[in-house]
Amino acid sequence: MIQSIDYYAVAPPLILALTAGLVLLLDAFLPRKPYVRPALGAVTLAGTLGALAVVVSQAVRAAGPLKTFCVPEGLLDAPGAVPGGTAPLLADPETGPGAAAPCSFVVDDFTLVFAGLALAAGVVVVLLSAARLSSGDIPVGEWYFLLLCTLVGAVTLPASRDLIMLVVALELVSLPVFALAGLKRYDGRSSEAAVKLFLVSVVSTAVTLFGVSLLYGTTGTVYLDRMASALRAGGPQALAATGAATYGPTPEAADPLSAVVTVAVVLVLAGFAFKIAAVPFHSWAGDVYQGVPVPVAALLSVISKAAGFAGLILVLVAALASQAATWLPLIAIIAALTMTAGNLLALRQRQAVRLLAWSSVAQSGYVLAPLGVRSDEAMNASITYLVFYAAMNLGAFAVVTLVSRWQERGELDDYRGLVFRSPPAGLALAFSLICLAGLPPGLAGLFAKIVVFREILDGGGGWLAVVMAVNTVIGLYYYVAWTVLIFTPAPAPVTAGGAAETVPGAGGRPGWVPAAVAIAVTAVAVVAFSGAPQLVLDLVPAGLIGSG
Known about the structure:
Layout: H1 11-29, H2 36-61, E1 66-70, E2 103-107, H3 109-133, H4 140-156, H5 163-181, H6 188-219, H7 224-233, H8 254-275, H9 285-291, H10 294-319, H11 324-347, H12 352-368, H13 378-403, H14 418-421, H15 423-437, H16 443-458, H17 462-486, H18 512-531, H19 534-537
Antiparallel strand pairs: 1-2
Pfam family, one: Proton_antipo_M
Subunit structure: NDH-1 is composed of 14 different subunits. Subunits NuoA, H, J, K, L, M, N constitute the membrane sector of the complex.
EC number: 7.1.1.-
């Protein structure tokens, strides 16, 4: 009755966790010398690359899903028995003797795509962190430790196949982030952002746990595949038929039980909507993104958002597919409202990070849109868009991090004439913005939107496609306006004596080297995705979520 552990399957989060411990020990015992700060960054980067290498090796292996933390078969002898659980209210014939043992940790194509995305983005965030930490006003050891803890959660979450592990992994992504947000001591905006992020995290966790508890109460299991089978057996049309079955409800209990499942679905959806900043739970995004250090904003916009979508897709597709009639229209409406609110709020912004914050909200609506229609490829379209978006958005944040080293205000006017002061940074930012807008030659964004449009139309969501088209046009304004500023010559600042003041270029402040490397990495990725979008399309094969 002992669970076996496949250490190869859990190697990526294990490497990250061990690296986090190592960073904390090195920070505690190494002398306070100038070389310690870059050394800790190098250790963090090595651990992240090591975990990414293992994920790549698991993808190349291609010998079927890796499963671990599985229930010993001896505990599945009784019909419907669930270790540590109760008899299910909805009878499930697939959980009887002979059924495959459910597993809590499964490494399949879905896991590999999201883990690879999180780790690749993590490499960029580590580089941006090195640029930000060069000023010395933030404790380095704690920063890298918390960042690695977030990556552990982001890699573990897509592999989670039971509700308990999924919620714990989701919190492991969230909790270190608001600690990161508040690490800049004696900074009012940073402290305010940390408190807002903490409150949002607490509320979203409470709402999610309410929904999870209802799902567990109605199905008697925490495993996603068993939950899906139980809900299929006890769906609204089958409740009366299963009333006579063992542990099944009476026909009189059919309607109340169906209502409980509906409430659970709505609560879980609301909890994840907080995590991905979807309407009506989006109001925290602008203030938090502006208040936190720029690398944390990049982490929130890509890694945290990807983890939220991974959890949402897992719950909807792997556990609640039989309840699609309940959540499909809700997702479609939320997607339409989210992309509209995000774009309209972005139109008013004159601060770079706030603009990217509301742009990120709008992009969440685009990612959600395919999940709101009946299409077998909807999940794949959402993941494809998320991969394209991650590269484009990280490219923009990389340049914003570099510019913030010599222009701390972060206003859009600070980017006026950037291409003349620092041509590589200016061109990289302009190309990322054009891609986000979906305009040539930034074909990465155009291909991403085409994939989403096609799935929405194939799923019969004509009205949602019209809303997305209108929002795409709205988004063109602020992306193009920012791009025009980059190519607009700026007048040279004049000192009190009348002499022209020199504006620092890319190498004018410490920490510009790692930021420049991050810009180069993201620029190469965006250009590659624009020239060969099949690189992303081939990463997202059909049937991503394997049976666990």
